[in-house]
Every structure is written in structure tokens, then in C-alpha cells.
Description:
Blueprint: E1 9-12, H1 28-33, H2 35-41, E2 45-48, H3 76-88, E3 92-97, E4 101-103, H4 107-113, H5 117-120, E5 125-127, E6 146-149, E7 154-157, E8 164-166, H6 172-187, E9 192-195, H7 216-219, H8 225-236, E10 242-246, H9 252-259, E11 268-270, H10 292-308, E12 314-315, H11 325-328, H12 336-348, E13 353-357, H13 378-389, H14 394-404
Parallel strand pairs: 1-2, 1-13, 2-3, 3-9, 9-10, 10-11, 12-13
Antiparallel strand pairs: 4-8, 5-7, 6-7
Amino acid sequence: MADFRDKVVYQIYPKSFRDSNGDGLGDLRGIIEKLDYLQKLGVDYLWLTPFFPSPQNDNGYDVADYRNIDPRFGTMKDLEELIAQADARGIGLMLDMVFNHTSTEHQWFRKALAGEKKYQDYYIFKEGIPDKIPTNWVSKFGGPAWEYVPSLGKWYLHLFDVTQADLNWENPEVREELKDILRYWKSKGIKGFRFDVVNLISKPDVLEDDDQGDGRRFYTDGPRVHEHLKELVRDSGIEGMITVGEMSSTTLEHCIRYSNPAEKELTMCFNFHHLKIDYKNGDKWELMEPDLAALKELYRKWQLGMQEGNGWNALFWCNHDQPRIVSRLGDEEKYWKQSAKMLAGAIHLMRGTPYIYQGEEIGMTNPHYDRVELYRDVESLNYYEILLSQGKSREEALEILAARSRDNSRTPMQWSDGEYGGFSTAEPWLSIPENYKSINV
């Protein structure tokens, strides 16, 4: 297996990176335009979040077709040019594989809804009646994790949005389809893969109510997850490539197994425990001051534990789901530069592979939106309504969104002090922070 321990990965959220054609949306040609900048930064890999055809209910993490390019982002020719131009600069491209679920617009799910038994077995359907939900599991975006289909008399599982139906990894035909997708992209010159919420793919044989929580204890690091990952990596021929798994609510012991080379699963893992230190009672939507003692203890535990177990950390502060770290743990005002550099230093000086999210290198901040109409993120819009239903005032709900929303990191990249921060010649899909005149490349 190749050694990725001295490499740096730069994450690109294409929709917000650079718009080359003036439609307000970032695109693949916009990334090509900025390759010289990325080469000067010294990055080794570019991880691109999904740009596949999608209804965009979850900004591309609801994939309708794993083998094509959403026309909003460009064409296959654009991607092939991006791969070639990046290769010429010594930069490899990593794709984001969303294999826990597909969009309900995917042809597999459409065939399932049309009554084809083969494709119903690609998903997790349960016979039932409208007023008796199969389990009390809660979706990660709020509300029940099941949706009823009257025409079938069945419920389907969706751990995320109702338009993101969970795949049935116990079906060998599903696993073969997913392996074939990896082979396809490898043949195109892709150099690595990031697997979205990959530790949730294995569900138990018997699905039951959770009398202690929201159901996650039954499917997180599930019964056959390691077996499935070994098979996926081995049979798709990606053993020698850089692979990183996003691990939701995982444990140190599992991450050692996921990333220990002897296990032949993945090369490294993301875990999120260090980003829950300002969750009151573990609730993302309850604010509190960061517990810095807990942060230090978590890093001590994971740094030593992964070293002793021969696992490997993917180190990060920011990504497309997290608030900007300088807004979260730093000081946006008096010590903006110093705190941004301090936080960057912490990531680069630990044991693991650093992942830099676009704009992190210039200390981009949260946008501090003051109106719910400015938000686009499905999770944020859902939780705004949930917070109001819990008795929060609109002002309190907006304060929570301003700190927690995934849109905090999705604002357009600030390239210059010109109009729209040099991101586009048109109004961007998401409002740009007002400080772009002083914080830009």
C-alpha cells in the first residue's frame, strides 16, 4: 500500500469554489482556473464533494447517477481535463462516494417504486400500514427515519433526508454495483476516494425500537461493516489508493480497525468527537462555550490510541458540514490572524493527514446571516422549524443557526475584494460574507 502519511488534502465544495460561466454556481472549469493557486499552496490531493446528477435536496449528497456529471457543474470532458491538468501539476483527484443511500430520483429507486422486486431489494423496505412506523429511529435531519409508500404498502428507511433512501448492503447485487462504480472512476484517472458516512452502511438483521436513543446504536459501526469494507476495497481494486472514511458517532477501537493497514480496509478516518465540544448535552442545536479541556483530552486519546493501534487519523477542523473554525474556536476580531494560524498549526503538527477546507487557508469566517431566507441548507431549515416548535424565539433560533448551520462553510470562496468576492460575475447561489473585502486570496 502506498504511504499517504506525508500528504496534504484540500477539500473543494465545487458549488462554492469558483464560477467560470457567470451563473452564480461554482463549476469544474472554475477549479481548472485555480489549479496554479492550489499547486502553489502545496497540496497533494483535491477531494471534490459530489458533482453527480442530483436533485440537490442535500447539495449533491443525494446522488441520482453515480457515473455522470450534473450539467450545472460541467461535462465529462471538463472533468477529464481537470484530471489531466491536476496530474500535470502532481495533484491527484479524490471523489466523494455516497454509498449509504441514493437519491429517490435514482433509477434504482424509481424501479423499486414501480414495483420491481429486484430493485426493492436494493433498499430497506418494510411491509406495513400508514399509522404503524417500523421503528422509532430518528433521521439525522430531524423527524422519523421512515417514509411510507402507499402504492406499495411499504415503508423505506432514510437515515438522512426523506429523498435519500438507504441502500441494502446485505444484498450482494448492491455491493457489486458499488464496486463497479469505483472501477469506473479509477479507470478515468481518479486517484482516491472519500466515503460518506460509511460506518452506517451495515444495519442489523432485525430492526427494533430504540428505548435509549434515536436508533444510532443499532446501525453505527454495524454488524458487518468491516466485512463489507474489506470486500469493497479488495474487489474494486483500490487497495493502493488513498481512501478516507467519514465515521459518524464512531469509536476509537473501530477507527483503528478501519485504518490499520493490516486490516486492508481504508487508509484513514474522519471522526467528529473533537467538534462536539460545544454541543450542550451532546445536542448540536444547543449552544455552549467550547470545553477546551475536553478538546485536549480527546486529541490526547485519539492521537495516542491511533498510534498504539497503528491506525491513521484524517486531521481536520473544517469541512462542508462544519462552521468555520476561526469563528468557532478563534477570535474573528482582534486576534483573527493569530488565532487562525494557531488553529492551522495545531492540525499540521499532529500525527495524521491534514485536510484543508477551501477558504480555511485564508481564515474565512461564518457569514452571520440574520434572516432565515438567506439559508439554503436542508438540515438548517428543518431545525429552524423544530427550534420554533420547541418554544425558541425567532431571534434565538437564528442565533443558533448562525453558529451551527452547514451553510457557514458553504459560502462562496473569497478570491478578491471585487464584486461577489471574485467568485462569480453574477449573484452567487449563497450570499457571500460581508468581510470579503478584507479576507480574500
